[in-house]
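Case 375 in the screening queue. Each case pairs one protein sequence with one candidate compound; here the compound is flavin mononucleotide. For every case the pipeline is the same: read the inputs, emit a complex structure as tokens, and attach any notable structural observations.

Predict complex for case 375.
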Amino acid sequence: MKNKARWRIPGFAWEYMTGGIGLEENVRRNTGDLQQIQFMPRYLSEAQQPDISTSVFGQKFDAPFGVAPVGLAGLQWPGCEPPIAKAARQHNILHMLSTHATQSLEKMKAHSGPVGWFQLYPPKDAAMETDMIERAKRAGYEGLVVTVDIPGVTRRDKDIRNGLSVPPNFDARTVYHAAMRPHWLLRLAKHGIPHFENLTPYAPKGATTKELYDFLGSVLSNHITSDRFKQIRDQWPGKLIVKGVLDPEEAAAYMALGADGIVVSNHGARQLDAAPSSVSMLPLVRKRLGPDALVIVDGGVRSGLDIARMIALGADYVLLGRPFIFSVAAIGDEGPSHLMDVLKAELRGTMWQLGCQKLGDLHKFLHQPEKAANA
Ligand SMILES: Cc1cc2nc3c(=O)[nH]c(=O)nc-3n(C[C@H](O)[C@H](O)[C@H](O)COP(=O)(O)O)c2cc1C
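Case 375 output:
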């Protein structure tokens, strides 16, 4: 899927989506560390058909994986957001919509229905923050996911080289990239130039592209301090999840401030090249928070086997970001549903091969060769 998507998405959008920061060591670490996790299959097993259903805050889901929030998805593949959300609803798995979506949170909730949560980048402006939270409440989102790992605009070399901006700045380079990808151009013609629809009500009226870009930068900046977090907690009556935490102590601190769950994530390796992989921190966060806290994870998950690995290491739920965009670009609007079918089949297949019937038993099949050798 990824290979096919590569030939349909223009270079500037491809590099924006697949890229990380710096030398991209952290991109490799996310997937590489995950691939190191081994399982011991056991064939003298009484296991019946594996059950991959799960529940989060009492809501039943058909599978323990879902869609991570991905900003500017409509630039990567124009019009891709509704089919991804509709597929998540049809498969009854969690869908998180980004603040930086190119379709409004109100329109998108109609597609995601009961599986939709909204991801908030808390803006600096308190009135804007309150308004966005009110909109999410009115639209009926039950979960609010506060992303804390973007305290400011990051410098990604490829995006700078490509002159990436929103709305896209069609200079000679981007026009050349786009001209080489007619499927993408046709989608763009159908769906229009992507904008940050959730933010347009707050942007200065009649702003130039440059002013708009500066506005978006100013919206993002700053750390989410305890006080800022408490203000959000006070305004949001539903479930509040913090996304972008790697440090177990920080995870515990957010829980003490009233969070209902944590997403262990390094933002798809897009923020700090020296950050640890999500999978390496997951067991430590689980240990620090104890067995009852909701722990979600993402970063480098590419198969049902990877989902099983994350669950074995302590995750209750697993998110994937880039793969759902690859799926629409490669296959069309049916792509996300196809990918969800494949992931479910791979997860069931992995559990069947291990002799594991329940998600909660996956940890019993973890294999650590060095420990086994010294036993
Ligand atoms: C192009 C792109 C845009 C993203 N935008 C957001 C965003 O708007 N909000 C957010 O919380 N995370 C965002 N993320 C991070 C994802 O939610 C998720 O943490 C990450 O993609 C997981 O890694 P994976 O792509 O390897 O599955 C983005 C990731 C990518 C690749």
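Case 375 observations:
- The mean pLDDT is 93.
- Residues 17, 68-71, 98, 100, 119, 147, 243, 265, 267-268, 270, 298-301, 320-322 surround flavin mononucleotide (CB under 6 Å).
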